[in-house]
Amino acid sequence: MTTNYETMYILRPDLGEEQVEQAVTKYQNLLRDQGAEEIQIQNRGKRRLAYEIKKHRDGIYIQLNYSAPATAIAPFERAMRLSEEVIRYLTIKQDIEEEKPPKEEKEKPTKVAATPATV
């Protein structure tokens, strides 16, 4: 069974365009080898980091959206952890909710005001 995932990873800012493309292709192929499908890649470009990571103040952000079996994530993240070019990564499992029919409102019983009996 496949699940939808989103992975955001940050590459070192000193990489050239060709090196960035090689890294993106490397991780895309790694995911495909693990059974991932529908891989969408978005290069978010070089951005300033909120704080210094491994002595870098900037990073090249890459976002991947894909469907993969759960067993594909561990080898993918291991490859990024061991890589010199990736300074940070995060994988999130996406829960896509199926549209549910709107719930019908239950009829609330109407209260009848008690009227005093006149004798």
Automatic annotation (TrEMBL):
Compositionally skewed regions (Basic and acidic residues) per UniProt: 99-110
Family affiliation: Belongs to the bacterial ribosomal protein bS6 family.
SUPFAM superfamilies in the record: Ribosomal protein S6
The protein, known as: Small ribosomal subunit protein bS6
Keywords from the UniProt entry: Ribonucleoprotein, Ribosomal protein, RNA-binding, rRNA-binding
Pfam families linked to this entry: Ribosomal_S6
Domain of life: Bacteria
HAMAP family noted in UniProt: Ribosomal_bS6 (MF_00360)
